[in-house]
Amino acid sequence: MMAYGKRQRMRYRRREHGLTDYRRRLKLLRSGEPRAVVRISNTQIVCQLVGYEADGDVIIASANGSGLVSNYKWPKGASRKSVPACYLVGLALAKQAKSAGHSSAVLDIGLASSSKGSRVFAALKGMVDGGLEIPHGESVLPDDGRINGAHIDAKVEKAVEKTRKAIEGA
């Protein structure tokens, strides 16, 4: 919508296109903690620990689904955005954040829906299991069967365990 007249203002471009909820972002920034950003694309998941600077956000640590394949022995043909993959990416991010000297964050899921047991909360569980302190309720986390991939296949269960050991050992 166009703004005309001396009393009207143009909305921010990212708000106009439905990409950013500035009210939610401001609440997250007021906490003073770095944000644990979780985004799910068509092909993979991306988790980042992002700090706020006056001249722009700074990425402190980052992990994604393709990094699981190249760094942690995740099978090439397996999904990079499934519930087990999201958990493992969250676990990898927590390991990187801990090595960078950060131990707490707040979860930023963006415009994703916050339904119980979703992939976003699987990534949260990975971060919490990896040692990051992130405020959350236990009721939103997926159960251990879904985290381990029991709902998909027995091969995925073995791959999850193998990748988890590779992340913790690296």
Describe this entry's structure for a reader:
- There is one protein chain.
- By secondary structure, the chain is an alpha+beta fold.
- The protein has one domain (18-169): Nucleotidyltransferase, domain 5 (2-Layer Sandwich).
- The protein has seven helices and four strands, in the order ααβββααβααα.
- It has a four-stranded mixed sheet, with helices on both faces.
- The model has no long low-confidence stretch (mean pLDDT 91).
Précis, in short:
The protein is an alpha+beta fold and 170 residues long.
If strands are numbered along the chain, what order do they take across the biggest sheet? 3-2-1-4
Structural class: alpha+beta
The helix tally amounts to 7
Succession of helices and strands: HHEEEHHEHHH
Quick one: overall form?
A: globular
- Quote the distance from N terminus to C terminus: 51 Å
Total count of strands: 4
* CATH second-level architecture: 2-Layer Sandwich
Q: Mind telling me the C-alpha Rg?
A: 18 Å
Q: Helical proportion?
A: 40-55%
| Unreliable runs | none
CATH topology: Nucleotidyltransferase, domain 5
Beta fraction of the residues? 5-15%
Q: Total domains, how many?
A: 1
Sheet with most strands? 4 strands, mixed
The CATH class designation is Alpha Beta
Mean pLDDT: 91
